[in-house]
Amino acid sequence: MLRIAVPNKGSLSEPASAMLHEAGYRQRKDRRELVLVDAENEVEFFFLRPRDIAVYVGSGKLDIGITGRDLLLDSGSPAEEILQLGFAGSTFRYATRPGTAKDVSEFGGMTVATSFAGLVQQHLAENNVDASVVRLDGAVETAIQLGVAEIIADVVETGTTLRNAGLEIIGEPILKSEAVVIRGTGAPDDDPKVRQFLRRMQGVLVARRYVMMDYDIRVEHVEKAVALTPGLESPTVSPLHHEGWVAVRSMVPSKDAQRIMDELYDLGARAILTTGIHACRL
Questions:
Q1: What ranges in the chain are assigned the alpha helix state H?
Q2: CB 208 within 8 A of CB 276
Q3: Histidine biosynthesis HisG C-terminal domain spans which residues (predicted)?
């Protein structure tokens, strides 16, 4: 069986399980369940702490896993990402009191507090900065106020929490993270079970981004209509019983669907319908 690590809690857990369910895999009904066997799909799921997943996958104990890019890099484990999943996005940045420093090049001799010590140490080394790193679990905003560090490095969304603590964001982002599928470095690229899993997950990603659009239009306007709805390869065009009209079917990005419908209507298209896509293979 393909052995897959899945986050057991936190912001990664529910979106990961939802995506796996959409991909046709069984998922646990009880949060206390640590191992789930999906015999029909020949997969065994292990529900683990998100921080531990890269370690298990990198050691070869598990074949692949779902975790955050930030957690993967922070772990230092010999694992690599092989598919971006598009959820749990976050930006990792430095912050400090105004006037302390403008960017990472000025951190020399200072102390940085963070929950991602491995990630920060790697970033400092890449920038040739000699600074100390203190690892703290949980919120790190008070580290500067309590004199533990001059700089903090943390996940930043709106920046409101940092401003409330009297801090400002400085420098360029350390990392933009999201949920990813990982495997051990050096694992074979041609594992058919892994390839099948990735196809399923990619199918979910496409199904979430696109809708199927159907509409009727007169023959003389087909080329202009098709230019609006080119599809992934090309749309399906079928003659209608009413002479001079055809039916067109094409996949379009869901975020553009309403605009495209308006433009098709102005072009003379009628009976314009959109339907969701539950799964696909490209």
A1: 13-22, 50-58, 69-75, 117-126, 142-145, 160-164, 192-209, 222-228, 257-267
A2: no
A3: 207-278
**4-16: per-residue pLDDT in tens?**
999 999 889 999 9
First-to-last alpha carbon distance for the chain, in angstroms, is 25
User: In terms of Cα–Cα distance, which of 58, 68, 4 is closest to 36?
Assistant: 4
The Cα–Cα gap between 141 and 153 comes to 9
Give the pLDDT confidence of 197-227 residue by residue, as tens digits.
999 999 999 999 999 999 999 999 999 999 9
Burial of 195 (0-12, 13-18, 19+ CB in 10 A): exposed
Residues 6+ apart with CB under 8 A from 266: none
Side-chain-side CA neighbours of 25 within 13 Å: the count stands at 25
* Residues contacting residue 148 through CB under 8 Å, at least 6 positions apart: 111, 113, 134, 136
The Cα–Cα gap between 178 and 188 comes to: 24
Evaluated on CA atoms 2, 8, 11, 14, the torsion sign reads positive
- One-letter identity of residue 234: S
The strand order across the sheet containing 270-276 reads 236-239, 245-253, 210-218, 270-276
pTM of the predicted protein model: 0.87
Task: Classify burial at 38, counting beta carbons within 10 Å of its beta carbon; exposed 0-12, middle 13-18, buried 19 or more.
Answer: middle
Q: Cβ contacts of residue 176 below 8 Å, gap of 6+?
A: 89, 90, 91, 92
Residue carrying structure tokens 């659009």:
213
pLDDT digits (tens, 9 = 90+) for 17-70: 999 999 999 998 888 889 999 999 999 999 999 999 999 999 999 999 999 999
Average pLDDT, the chain: 93
